[in-house]
Design goal:
The complex is a heterotrimer. Chain B is α/β, with parallel strands linked by helices. Chain B has 6 helices and 6 strands; from the N terminus they run E-H-E-E-E-H-E-E-H-H-H-H. In chain C, helix 2 links the parallel strand 1 and strand 2. Classes of the chains: A alpha/beta, B alpha/beta, C alpha/beta. Chain B: This is Pyruvate/ketoisovalerate oxidoreductase catalytic domain-containing protein.
Amino acid sequence: MCAEPLALLTGVHFMDGNSAVCEGAIAAGCRFAAGYPITPSTEIMERFASRVPRLGGICIQMEDECASIMACIGAVWGGAKAFTATSGPGFSLMMESIGYAAMTETPLVVVNVQRAGPSTGLPTMPAQADMLQARWGSHGDYRVIALCPNSPQECFDLAIKAFNLAETWRVPVLIMMDEVVAHMSERVVIPTLSEIAVVQRRYTQVRPGEYQPYRPAARGVPEMAPVGKGFFMHVTGLTHDAKGYPAMDPETQDALVRRFTAKIDSNADDIIVYEEEEIADAEVVVVAYGITSRAAAAAVEEARALGIPAGLLRLVTAWPFPEKKVRELSGRVKALIMVELNLGQMFLEMDRCAKGGAQSIFLGHAGGSIHRPEAILMAIQKAAQL
Amino acid sequence: MIPPHTLPARIIISGLGGQGVILAGCILGRAAALYERTAATLTRSFGPAARGSACSAQLILDDTLVHYPYVDKPQVLLALSQQAFEQYAPLLVPGGVLIIDEHLVKPPAALSGISLYAVPATRYAEVLGNRQVANSIVVGFFVAVTGLFARASVERALRESVPPGTMGLNLKAFSCGYSHAIKMYGEHHTFSGRFEGKARAVQGNKQFKNA
Amino acid sequence: MNSHPSDSYLRTDRLPHLWCPGCGIGATMNSFVEAVKLSGISRKSLAVVSGIGCSGRVAGYLKADSFHTTHGRAIPFATGLALANPGLRVAVYSGEGDLVAIGGNHLLHAARRNVNIMVVCINNFTYGMTGGQLAPTTPIGSITATTPYGSTEMPCNLVNLAASAGAVFVARWTVFHVRQLACTMAEALVRRGFSFIEVLSPCPTLHLQRNNLGHGETEMRYFKEYSRVANNTSPVEAGLDRRDRKIIVGTFVKRERAVFFDSPDSVTLVRKKKVKA
């Protein structure tokens, strides 16, 4: 399926990440957003509010972030593709409903433009310190998919991908941006209609009466049914059986939650995207994501110019984490350096996967600015001498 | 096309919120990325308030992808407030170009190794009837003194970036800044690549007669 | 087993329900089924959204597209559902703790926007599901699990809250008034805009027992004896105070106002912009 023609601003633009992620959502067929103003994500909703009424869509400002995300979940069940955008404090408020979306297997996209925290922190400055919250923030066991664009172009591309992943796997997909990428303007190419692959909502072929909303179908993902067509589906945040009915027993709970995790874990290879630079003969590999990966790329280039065999593993998908890749690298390189704008979040995951192999090194700070390439270069130089 | 020998070019535009600093950056970035076929990365920093607080736009032009998006050592600084000047002028590379609004920025007596270009942008904007077009005057002035961009590219980007109702006035402002540069510093001024502009070395806190 | 006339509107495979003997929620559900029949709206187009709590379980027993959401968020969910799918008739069915305490802000703003949803708020003066804690409508002096020495808080007048926030249809009945309730629900189902129906219902297990108010039946007698039907009463005057021995019931507000996203003004706004684009 293709994107809608009217909605697509095919051409070359000079645009910031917030605008680009909004255009990506529109290109993916999203026509519903509900949000609450919060720096530094506000421009996403502002742009959507100006764009979609002309495309027959709806953008509403709700009374808070709890309402925003829930209105989006309601809209998804109403048949729309929907998303919301927020930043730290709002992301915290949305956590309960991210769990609800996971439990009800709602295809939902949430953009979090990360700013320095905790609490109000530095509202206009970048951080990457919501990465574990993205993974573990709501209570209970569940899985999400989290993507980390490092340029406005990628904000556009990954927004489309996020909606496609959400429809495919029926999980909340989180676009984990940061303040720099959000407010950084660069050339953004919006392709033509036929060049954009959009996964549309697929509804069941099973007839009402026979349909069971939570019967696992292909790859562990149940099929959705359209609302208002006589399927009389029941959707609940309680532990439920295949019929969608509450089932208060440990066996149903275990089977349900294991399916949530298995549908992502056992298909991780199809979901995970990463980029490698100069990895083949590298002895020191920098692992980075989002804006930090650009400072890291500059440092790796410098290191190569100095003759140090350095490489870069850039995480496009932070969750699920590219465990296999890190294990493989860990078995053959001297050191892995995680560079991130927090005090060691994705580092924990990298360190876990690297165990027994390469030395894992952490280079991070609490946010507010981004790493200078020289600082990363120094870490590379030090690691190369190990 | 931006002369390859001048790349990467690192530019800081700085002033106060409300002066159109970010928009000026967007216009130049757009001109570079869309019409000069150069990689351009524009970042911005701003305080919590949009109006009146310090703000800056940082633009990097390069022939390949820009990795690190911030400017540590600008080759060109456009300073539209004294605070902006004081904060960023010390970062200019030797031989760097400093463009100021001469009524808003008073450089100290000793400012060696850089080329100073001054334009009474806000005064001109007031004469044109709207203070808000001072940024377009500065952009026109910048285009003329640096020669980095083709005039047509920037004019096109400007047309696409300003509110439609103000396009005529903004283009007029652009021309005004451009002409002022030609008048003061001569025609066919181009970036040498080592940023040795034709501006006179700064001899203290000078005033311009035509201001 | 014999069938019941409402069976085709219920998920009979989920019965018996979990409500206590003497609880009034089941009776309101029956009124709601009657209302759906009376209203003539297609059952396919009906969607029921609930929050958390005893009343929140209604969604699970009705044979409609039904959504049991999180605590307090039924109204925002319903807002998204109704806006994304204007062909649906969306009813929110929940309790006073869910809709007014944790979800109070959403109630205010949905009423203010005049979102096209119908809200049924079961008011049983306590938190039933969690064990009888203080609710926003708990009468002053009442013993609850979290006010063991008696509540000192002024209870909220729900109909006044909804009316002052902008609801276009506001009514109150008790579970004694099952027929009136059904008619009022039917009227709300066919109206457009934000409607709010409060239904007083006994919680015999927790609220009544703890406060020596008898059983479900005692409370029904109380509702019967002290209710005064007074349509068009100003909601300000319709506060509930057990010491008054008076429960004002009826339809208090009926008015027309632009419905959220139905407004010709907003359409014009977009059209005007379109010309420029």
